[in-house]
Design a protein that fits this description.
5 domains, 6-stranded mixed beta sheet, Ubiquitin-like (UB roll), 620 residues, homodimer, Nucleotidyltransferase, domain 5, alpha/beta, binds FE2/S2 (inorganic) cluster, 24% strand
Chain lengths: 620, 620
């Protein structure tokens, strides 16, 4: 009896929409909704902290999570209200959407380095008093306007046609005193002085799983609102490769995927505007970042060649275009800017990571690691930047692991030994139904510590193990190999198999080899590193100690290791708020020396050397 | 009984459209249609040479014109077919449109100087073979495309998003051999080699009365088709000032006027595309020129301040924008370029005139005169350019003249003395119903020659005239003054009154004063002029000898006077076909030193001195 290996299909029905899908059990309501193509609001990105993603659940016995207890009122609890992101479904269910309270301001905890930023947005407002024309000064309205703007210290050399159309009247009706908004050398709006409309911009991090947006005041840098939500493309598959496959299978695939992500972002922006009360046309800029495939899908650019050798993007430079060209209705008057990328598997999100961590300005080299299906690794300082992408595979996300699952309620997220027994921490505090990435790293560290797994990665047979009985009794043959059971008698058995250990070993080997090849290319030892930045959602959940024990993080003093969370969004915001940062992003994308590891012999060698679990790295 | 002074109203009904209007009689079908907002096709611009503007006329006795006899078949003549541009209505009529033959290629006689042009269009095609990517060369598709374009000698630094979307597939499906189209530094289309779509551009001269368009091959410079048609804005008034008044009277006036001109141009472009069989998306560029008010109305830019002191345009520089921003559906994928202007009353059409005549490249100074309600005058050579606009008033267009009318059928277009009698030439060869500009100039010259008008401009009373009886009998008191009758007994009397003479005197005085003030500012005598170019439709119809006799054209050897017709369209074509010419247009617009005559004392002095009919100009 094993719910993960041969997942039971359950039927989930969403009311009042009437959508019904059959999904693998267990699944959170949040993901089930995404797969049904229904955008539930998840302001905090499913972290279980905002208490906004309220649904009512009928028909299936579900336990309230700790977050439910914490964030919902007694009435709500009694009325079968649940937090969508914290609620795992195990049987047929009817979900009533919009059953909750009115939502207030979202709350997303975003950590990051984020050095102070010099506000220098591409959109600027200036108030002008322009000398009126006369028979001896017949320069055109546009000429005198541009001259006045220039005198105010703003570079602009043209006026948008939509402004010109009403320019003569606005100037004369307001005695030549106007408030002017310029964007990238172009005057895009001329209004009476006293019109105090705010100049807003949106930063978007288009993640494969989660999208984060923020609404920002471009004149003050203030973040007015922020949202996190599931990428509605999840309907079409969990990882980038399955999305690319959609584009290959169906002629309209690219457009379907674009529609989903535009829809996601549109809903998030609309929600932020609704919360803050600003109109759509106060958004002048949108800065988007994402991995190369996500960025291309955002713009409906065929992503297929990124997925196959030689892994080439359609475009690597900065792109800027009016919002209507991609149909982003929520910010229809804005200009969209999409980050440059470094390579097919080192995208605009990594450019943003670099900007957020500031490693490109540091004197001493630091390492930046963003672990997902691919681990993007950057090594650099102000003089030099190198990057590679190492094929870690899905093991750290629970993929191809016997009891693996993503980090949703029911997943074992931490494992440790105390008092001669195995302790588990389960997301949502219910019974364990599987194990996610951070749990797997802990588990592997425990098995290494207990010498159940040896330095070569072999999970010993019970007969081959001479240790204490409380360990031995968890060991045993499984399928054609061996396994170790994490759970105790009365729980559903969650096992780590020798195949799982092998998968994790390959994954950490890939990351390690990627790090080592950059250190090797640079000619630097671990000790010389100033910091190691672990970026991305996954990184913020792992235990640095166990990650170091299994060799995923290099063996340096832990003070040097910094876990930063969603740095991609922070970097996007920097590009949004400062022209200098955007230019720096372009500079970085061109400056980074990309090292392609695929098929490279020295990477293969290092990969072989990186498979073991010894803590010695410096054999270069 | 006088049809012109108190014009009879007649009803004209257009079938099968069902539109009905009441208009002043006499009126040509062409203008009646324009006033009814119906776009009849007039491929040759109403010159009566193409034979395409066939309509059937019912209910009102109309004579066939000479052009009808010449261009229509006997069957058509019998079936009451008429050429719309040559047919003058004098009573209630029903017009059947689309009663004629299938139209073939249009025929417009366009004269002009038009020096050989170096083809250097803003849109270029290049065929490329691009090295495919590999693991050791992972540059993005866009990067390698831009690099190949650069190697082919074309400057381009970006790829339009619509191209990027399909770029990966097109490159790979065609083994990296593609045909690329670039516009102004941007790659706008990537197609398989062998796709031989032509790269076309449209030149548009937006005249107040007539619009001329041509369809041109940007790679060969070949003119594929040309059209002339009435500006549908005529519905809202004959001259620019009455159109500006519409924008002041009605809030939506600007947009109504824009709609009319866009409709006019749309129909003309569609007709050219239909004739040549090319699709709309082969039009990549549209180059428009016109006077400042027409240009602003074309773009829906408020033109009101141009019409009142200090006569300021909203914009003077070159404007470029995508066609969809002004709704030009017939060329919806094109980029529109609107000429820079020199001043409120020296517009993009004069910039085009200068380009077409080439005075800006000549060693010796020449004079350029474009006569309409305002006379635009340019004096210049390669080193220096000066311009002014002199308020000639509508007299030369037949406005404010007792029997005045525009140059349409029924108008006296030439007057001369032979064998002691007055000879008249009437447009359309029917009975005279009025007199147009060229006829007025001739008539005034005749009156000066016969000494009926003296050098001060006084039309003598009959008693005050001692000349032969055949002259005296045409003279006589009229209203509170005197008049001279041009027609003979059996014809409707067409008189020149002393007030008419005064109006013409003021008009020619204004032109003369404008010319003289520029010569004065420059410090040059008439004899030193290399040429005098008379531009525009009006200029191509006047008799240079009589124009010189009344002092409208300076007294220099007639070989130096050149009548060029529609140079504005020719100049627009030059800007369309060559980037160099467009840049030259921008340069000219900035270089021309504009002299504002309004309220200028030295212009007033010269104006006074220019009223007489003596032939001495050089009293400077
Ligand atoms: S609690 Fe915030 S999304 Fe669920
Ligand atoms: S004959 Fe050509 S327009 Fe009438």
């Amino acid at each position: 009896m094993n719910a993960t290996s041969t997942p039971k299909k359950i039927t989930v029905r969403f009311e009042p929409i009437g959508a019904e899908i059959r999904v693998d059990s267990p699944i959170s309501v949040m993901l089930a909704a995404a797969e049904a193509g229904i955008a539930l609001e998840h302001p905090c990105g499913g972290l279980g902290v905002c208490g906004k993603c309220i649904v009512r659940v009928r028909g299936n016995h579900v336990e309230h999570s700790q977050a439910d207890q914490h964030l919902l009122s007694p009435e709500e609890l009694e009325q079968n209200c649940f937090l969508s992101c914290q609620t795992v479904l195990t049987g047929d269910t009817v979900i009533e959407c919009q059953a909750g309270r009115e939502t207030e301001s979202g709350l997303v905890v975003i950590h990051g380095v984020n050095a102070p930023i010099e506000l220098k947005p591409r959109v600027r407002r200036v108030r002008l008093e322009i000398p009126p024309p006369s028979l001896s000064d017949q320069r055109s309205d546009a000429t005198r306007l541009l001259y006045a703007v220039k005198q105010a210290g703003i570079l602009a050399d043209r006026v948008h046609l939509s402004c010109l159309q009403t320019l003569p009247q606005i100037l004369r009706d307001n005695q030549w005193r106007v408030s002017v908004i310029c964007r990238e050398g172009e005057i895009i709006s001329v209004d009476p002085v006293g019109d105090d409309r705010r100049i807003l911009g949106v930063a978007v991090d288009v993640g494969t799983t989660t999208v984060v947006t923020s609404l920002n005041d471009l004149e003050t840098g203030e973040e007015l609102s922020v949202r996190g939500a599931a990428n509605e493309q999840l309907v079409y598959g969990q990882d980038v490769i399955s999305r690319v496959n959609i584009t290959l299978d169906q002629k309209s695939g690219i457009h379907q995927l674009q529609e989903k992500i535009i829809q996601t972002v549109d809903r998030m922006i609309e929600s932020m505007l609704e919360e803050t009360g600003y109109p759509s046309d106060s958004i002048y800029l949108v800065q988007a970042v994402g991995n190369s495939i996500m960025q291309q899908l955002f713009m409906a650019i065929d992503p297929a060649p990124i997925a196959i050798t030689p892994f080439v993007t359609a475009v690597s430079g900065l792109l800027q275009f009016p919002a209507h060209t991609i149909g982003l209705e929520s910010a229809r008057h804005s200009q969209i800017s999409v980050s440059p990328v470094i390579a097919g598997y080192v995208g605009g999100d990594i450019v943003a990571d670099i900007l957020a961590t500031g490693i490109h300005q540091a004197r001493h080299p630091s390492l930046l690691v963003d672990i997902g299906t691919n681990a993007e690794i950057v090594l650099g300082n102000k003089d030099r930047l190198m990057a590679c992408s190492s094929p870690a595979g899905p093991a750290f996300e629970g993929g191809h692991i016997f009891h693996g699952m993503r980090g949703i309620p029911g997943a074992i997220e931490a494992v440790w030994v105390e008092d001669d027994t195995i302790h588990l921490k389960v997301i949502g505090d219910g019974d364990p139904v599987g194990i996610c990435g951070s749990g797997l790293i802990d588990a592997l560290a425990v098995l290494l510590h207990l010498e159940v797994v040896d330095e070569t990665g072999r999970l010993r047979a019970r007969d081959d193990f001479a240790g204490p009985e409380w360990i031995r009794e968890r060991m045993g043959p499984f399928k054609k190999g061996h396994s170790f059971c994490l759970t105790c008698e009365e729980q559903k058995p969650i096992r780590i198999t020798d195949k799982d250990v092998r998968a994790l070993q390959l994954a950490k080997g890939a990351v390690q080899a990627g790090i080592r090849i950059l250190l090797d290319q640079w000619g630097i030892s671990l000790e010389e590193l100033d910091s190691i930045f672990i970026c991305g959602a996954f990184g913020s959940k792992i235990n640095p100690v166990t990650a170091q024990q299994i060799g995923l993080i290099p063996p340096i003093v832990l003070e040097k290791v910094r876990f930063l969370g969603n740095t991609a969004h922070i970097g996007a915001k920097r590009m949004l708020l400062s022209d200098k940062e955007l230019n720096m992003g372009v500079f970085i994308s061109e400056k980074v020396c990309y090292f392609e590891v695929s098929g490279h012999p020295s990477f293969q060698d290092l990969f072989g050397l990186s498979l073991g679990f010894g803590r010695k790295w410096d054999l270069l």
